[in-house]
Every structure is written in structure tokens, then in C-alpha cells.
Inverse folding.
């Protein structure tokens, strides 16, 4: 997988990747980003928040890790239950990046399980 930098009029710097990790050009990236079903890999809703795993399409860690598989998926939590706002193990708002869809789904399930456990305590 060759990394080539591509800058565009929106100020985004590539390289860009599809959900399989294949390199794509900026125009393809934009087309895929417009498709909500393509972008959202998995979504779990809680009473007071949600966990979303999404295809990001570009390497979110390119500046800090030069030699790694591109991190093109992110799993994040939204919403903050009042009882958890200042807890030491507060995971609400936490983002976890992954290089493959399989790893992203594993992160999603781990985060959901952890949050479900925290919410029942």
C-alpha cells in the first residue's frame, strides 16, 4: 500500500483510502463521504449516549506515526451521563482509531461492553 500525499482545494491532505484499505483519489473519497451508509460502520445507542464506528477515509495518525498501516476507522462515544462526567475511567468522548474494519468493529464491541458495565454500576 503506497502512501502518496495529495492536497486538494478543501485543504485536506491525503492519502485517502476506501473501507478495504485500498488507496483512492480525492474525488472518490468525496463521493464515498457523501454516502452515510458507507461511512457508518456500526452504531449502538444507549439511553444517554451512543457509540459510533465510522470509516474516516484518511489516516488519522499520519503525522505522528510514519510507518504504520493507515488508521482509517474511528470509534467514538457521544453523550455524557451525569453520573459519569467526572469519573476517572470516563470513556465518553473517547476516540479509538483502527486500520481495518474488523479491528474497528472489535473496538466498538469492547467499548460498548465497557460502557454497559459502567452504566449498570
Amino acid at each position: 500500500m503506497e502512501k502518496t500525499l495529495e492536497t486538494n482545494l478543501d485543504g485536506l491532505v491525503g492519502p485517502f483510502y476506501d473501507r478495504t484499505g485500498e488507496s483512492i483519489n480525492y474525488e472518490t473519497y468525496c463521493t464515498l463521504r457523501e454516502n452515510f451508509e458507507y461511512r457508518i460502520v456500526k452504531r449502538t445507542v444507549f439511553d444517554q449516549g451512543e457509540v459510533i464506528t465510522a470509516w474516516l477515509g484518511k489516516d488519522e495518525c499520519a503525522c505522528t506515526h510514519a510507518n504504520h498501516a493507515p488508521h482509517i476507522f474511528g470509534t467514538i462515544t457521544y453523550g455524557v451521563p451525569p453520573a459519569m462526567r467526572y469519573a476517572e475511567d470516563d470513556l465518553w468522548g473517547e476516540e479509538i482509531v483502527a486500520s481495518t474494519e474488523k479491528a474497528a468493529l472489535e473496538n466498538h464491541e469492547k467499548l460498548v461492553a465497557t460502557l454497559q458495565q459502567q452504566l449498570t454500576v
Remarks:
- The CA atoms of residues 73 and 100 lie 7 Å apart.
- The helical segments are 26-33, 36-39, 101-120.
